[in-house]
Specification:
Layout (H helix, E strand, L loop, with lengths): L1 H39 L2 E6 L8 H20 L7 E6 L6 H15 L3 E3 L4 H13 L3 E4 L14 E3 L4 H15 L4 E7 L3 H16 L3 E8 L7 H10 L3 E4 L3 H13 L6 E3 L6 H7 L7 E5 L8 H14 L5 H20 L4 H8 L5 E3 L2 E5 L5 E4 L1 E7 L2 E9 L5
Parallel strand pairs: 1-2, 1-3, 3-4, 4-5, 6-7, 6-8, 8-9, 9-10
Antiparallel strand pairs: 10-14, 11-12, 12-13, 14-15
Helix pairs in contact: 2-11, 3-4, 5-6, 8-9, 11-12
């Protein structure tokens, strides 16, 4: 009998000890969680949106560098509101599913106060829906297409938007260059291209230009002999191509092969090293695109940014590195000015931004919450590099 009592007692003691250990473990976990939470209050996290591998990595890689440079500078100056700034970097590979997963991770796991990016309009829209739903600011340093800020009052951008740039560029094309007979090629599986084409069509009509030919391709195609054969028959003054750099290069190579002297103009989707690598002499001083940034003829502030960027990365910055840098700095100014890291608070400052003197030009957020950037820069390929035509076209917003 005595033996049974001892056994029961021993079992009870073991149960008590086990429960005690569980409780202690839970308390320890809770304490650790509270410490982590407390530590997080001293860190402001910003999530990077961009591709560093894949088809559009030439946009994302410099963008990431610009963002990192801005964060390093902020931390060297004491951070934001005395708190350290931390960038969280994931590669979305230019894929809609990837960016959706990354944006969700930034919101739920990383607890970012804002996301910076994406350079591409379609990808930005995917992440913007998640940001808006979760009341997190998304500030794009690259998306130029329509319908981005329409997704909600937490969505912003500091880019030269197509609806402002295209009318200015078309006016230059038609009335200054005399290019009145225009052909247009659209990439039908590219949301950027299908959205940009109507903007060009409207501006061309407004300037009394004649659209003498229209054709379509798809991203990923490599044979454009049929399209160039058609263009040879109508001989346009200029070809408006609303797609990306890779297909642009191949179109121009085919034009060169068929002996067609062709000029091409488009949006900043034509920016990409592969334009020069694939196009070679076929694109040299024949392809032009508009952008909100150029390193040629820079202001004093921009010149310093270019110098510091070169020293850091041993390469010239582009519009994406400059715009991401500015996006981070604008977010910092918004938080400092409102003395808050709460997106629901500092988004109000972003909505009233006026004449922010960034390295990518002045930025004002208009009544429609769209950015107004000045001036429009026209660039071309010269000696194997992107160079400004030194044509700075003012933007007029009605």
């Amino acid at each position: 009998m005595k033996m049974r009592v001892n056994r029961k007692t021993a079992i009870l003691l073991c149960l008590v000890l086990a429960l005690s250990l569980v409780a202690t473990g839970c308390a320890a976990k809770k304490d650790a969680s509270e410490v982590d939470k407390a530590a997080d209050t001293n860190v402001i996290k910003l999530g990077f949106l961009g591709a560093t591998t894949g088809e559009v990595a030439c946009y994302g890689r410099p963008a990431e560098k610009g963002m990192k440079m801005a964060i390093d500078e902020l931390n060297a100056q004491g951070g934001i509101l005395g708190k350290k700034v931390e960038g969280i970097y994931e590669d979305n590979k230019g894929d809609n599913a990837e960016i959706a997963n990354i944006a969700q991770k930034y919101v739920t796991r990383d607890k970012v106060v804002a996301m910076v990016g994406d350079p591409c309009t379609g990808l930005t829209k995917v992440a913007a829906k998640i940001a808006q739903t979760n009341k997190i600011v998304l500030f794009s340093g690259g998306a130029t297409g329509t319908g981005v800020v329409d997704l909600g009052d937490y969505i912003f951008r500091n880019t030269l938007v197509d609806k402002n740039a295209v009318p200015a560029v078309v006016n230059w094309m038609v009335n200054k260059q005399g290019w009145k007979n225009v052909a247009i090629i659209t990439s039908m599986n590219n949301g950027y291209s299908t959205a940009l084409t109507p903007v060009f069509q409207e501006a061309l009509t407004a300037n009394k230009a004649k659209i003498i030919a229209e054709d379509t391709i798809n991203d990923g195609e490599t044979d454009f002999s049929a399209q160039i054969t058609k263009l040879k028959k109508v001989k346009p003054d200029v070809l408006v191509f609303t797609g990306y750099y890779k297909e642009a290069a191949l179109i121009m190579k085919e034009a060169q092969k068929q002996g067609l002297d062709l000029k091409m103009i488009g949006g900043d989707g034509l920016y990409g090293e592969d334009l020069m690598k694939l196009g070679g002499t076929a694109v040299e001083q024949k392809v032009m695109y508009y952008a909100g940034f150029t390193s040629d003829g820079a202001s004093a502030e921009t010149a310093k940014f270019i110098q510091d960027y070169k020293a850091l990365y041993n390469e010239e910055p582009d519009m994406f590195s400059a715009q991401y840098y500015d996006a981070v700095m604008i977010l910092a100014q918004a938080m400092e000015s409102t003395k808050s890291t709460d997106p629901s608070v500092f988004k109000g400052y972003l909505a009233t931004l006026k004449d922010y003197p960034g390295v990518s030009g002045k930025t004002t957020i208009g009544a429609d919450r769209e950015p107004i950037k000045n001036p429009v820069c026209l660039l071309t390929v010269k000696d194997g590099n992107f160079r400004s035509l030194m044509e700075l076209i003012p933007v007029t917003v009605k």
